[in-house]
Amino acid sequence: MAVYHSKSESETEAIGAAFARDLPGGTVVAMYGELGAGKTAFVRGMARGMGINCRVSSPTFTIVNEYAGERELIHFDMYRLSSADELFDIGWEDYLARGAVCAVEWSENVSDAFFGDEIVVRIEKIGEDERLITIGEDAPC
User: Fold this and answer.
1) How many domains does the chain have?
2) Residue 70 φ/ψ, nearest 5 degrees
3) Is residue 140 part of a domain?
4) Which domain holds residue 49?
5) Which of the four, 37, 42, 80, 134, has the lowest number of CB atoms within 10 Å?
């Protein structure tokens, strides 16, 4: 488990970039954190660390955004889903089979879609711009 203290959105992105630089294809990143915690900023950093140079935004309304560069990143936002069944309905298993890195915001809404081999990233607000980022701990209860 690794713990980072971010003092700004750009630091959160830098932590995400360093984290994702060497992530192997097929990795699932289950993200947890309240609204506005910085999950999308972390994913923007992940994209940069993976050699992806396009605009990264929250897929809250589209559910899934796909980004290609040196490697592929698939960014899910489960905020609007109420169960893993809905995730499977949009082709979760097909996305996993592609071997891309999958970053999943609001993972608590679809926790039973995970197989236990995901990397957990928890982002907690500890101040106006400060965040505590924990990577590699077990999913919250």
Assistant:
1) 1
2) -60, -35
3) no
4) 2-135
5) 80
Mean pLDDT by 10 residues, the chain (141 residues): 95 97 95 94 96 86 88 93 87 92 94 89 94 80 40
The one-letter amino acid code at 66 reads E
CA atoms 112, 44, 120, 101: torsion sign: positive
pLDDT at 82: 82
Closest to 47 (Cα-Cα) out of 33, 27, 62, 66: 66
Whether residue 81 lies inside any domain: the answer is: yes
Report pTM. Answer: 0.91
Which of 119, 35, 139, 137 is CA-nearest to residue 78?
35
Rounded to whole angstroms, how far apart are CA atoms 122 and 19?
13
Q: Which helix (H) or strand (E) holds 86?
A: helix 84-89
Tokens (6 digits) for 29: 């990143």
